[in-house]
Amino acid sequence: MSVSSSQVAALLAVVALLAAGGTYLLMSSTTEPTTASTATITQTSTVTTTQISTSTATKTQVSTITTTTTQTSTTTLTKTAEASSLEVTPLGHATVMITLGEYTIYVDPYGIDFSTSPKADLILITHPHPDHLSTSSIQALSKDGTELIAPESAKSSLPQAITIQAGEEKSVDGVKVKAVAAYNLERRNQRGDLFHPEGFGVAYVVSIGGKNILFAGDTECTSEIQSLEDIDIAFLPIDGVYTMTPEEAAQCYIEIMPKVAIPYHQNREDPNQVKDLLTSTPSIKVEIYQLP
Length: 292
What we know:
Elements: H1 5-9, E1 14-16, E2 24-27, E3 36-42, E4 50-51, E5 60-62, E6 74-80, E7 85-92, E8 95-100, E9 103-107, E10 122-124, H2 135-141, E11 147-151, E12 162-164, E13 169-172, E14 175-182, E15 201-208, E16 211-215, H3 223-226, E17 233-237, H4 246-256, E18 260-264, H5 272-277, E19 285-286
Parallel strand pairs: 1-4, 9-10, 10-11, 11-12, 16-17, 17-18, 18-19
Antiparallel strand pairs: 1-5, 2-7, 3-6, 7-8, 8-9, 13-14, 14-15, 15-16
């Protein structure tokens, strides 16, 4: 089927994606990282909306597109990172995926079938406990050129990783990754040892697309975390056994004052408790996902 110039002109710059499991979208004006992606769509009639279906998420985003036509009735959309949304997708427990254009970051990938997931450009590990460090998940997500950042405590399991310690900052492909001290203040095992002693793990502040995103990992509300500023999205754990309770997390959110709060690492705790406790702090938007 031939495609007329009037049909091509009718194609709008709107891409609709349908989200399962939820994705928090932030429009980005940055060009970092400067990558590009293309999608080919079969055109069967004159259209004003282009729909792409994916197996992982549903999103609506506005993109700048250019079109070309061929005798096989396909339209190629060219999408640069500059025209893309920064997408933050909680996947489960403490696993989160960040995408900007075709650039993909995973934090603590674990417990999910990643066989059809986008390959990682960067993987961040907060500490070596098995619900945060899964070598099989890392292997499934890795490709040539995948970078891996982890604390020194994970080095024996991940000898290929770039090591980082609290207070340090690394830059990978234009993405800034700052490590923040993350540890227990009170919670101990049966031997009386802290579950997460100071220096064992780290939290991360990832700066990408003009946004700062906190991934606290396993921690209580340390002074280092309380002192963070200019956080756009903050993930805090709320399981109450190894990390904070929902009440403690709510107070920690008030200390940090992020624009968006996403309680994770929930186990049996209800993240809606955090939302209820923050109703008197309307400047913090609480997003609820089931992340046991």
